[in-house]
């Protein structure tokens, strides 16, 4: 086998193993919380020795950064799909239902644990701030392109709309994580109704109510 193919195979294997560790860590954090889950717990969940795990992630902080990077990559893919969709509104509905209805509730629980930790841990605070800024920036870019195509009203400020969407999405994640009465179909429909009004220009937003353009 040529050296380049061997290297590519090794890189895929390493990437797959990192993904397995992150998935194991996520299960541990959801089950026991960030502080309650130890590196040994994660090793047991991943089925590997501590020495092997530390080759990939030297600490729980590094694992958390890896989880954030993984989720940012997933969102970047969704934004790329949304930006290139022929039917922008239909694609938007599909992505909203994917994140707030179809994906496991554990993702929302994990987000809530990370946000809580961000109130007292500078490492988590930096990860959260970077993640939120990335979401608003990328979504604002997608909305600017949609506005240029006529899929969003000409009166809409894309960066303000992106911030509003991010705020509402965070609220949905909290409710999904903690509210026993959470009804995904009903509440996602309400979310989409509000966002639809924002994108149609029915909900007035000014530059003063959002981030600078």
Properties at a glance:
mainly alpha; Arc Repressor Mutant, subunit A; 213 residues
Task: Describe this structure as you would to a colleague.
This protein has 213 residues and is mainly α. The protein has two domains: 1-58, Arc Repressor Mutant, subunit A (Orthogonal Bundle); 65-209, Orthogonal Bundle (Tetracycline Repressor, domain 2), CATH 1.10.357. The chain has helices spanning 3-36, 39-46, 50-56, 60-84, 88-102, 105-118, 122-149, 158-178, 184-199. α1 packs across α6 and α6 packs across α8 (158-178).
What's the layout of helices and strands?
Layout: H1 3-36, H2 39-46, H3 50-56, H4 60-84, H5 88-102, H6 105-118, H7 122-149, H8 158-178, H9 184-199
Helix pairs in contact: 1-2, 1-4, 1-6, 4-5, 4-7, 5-9, 6-7, 6-8, 7-8, 8-9
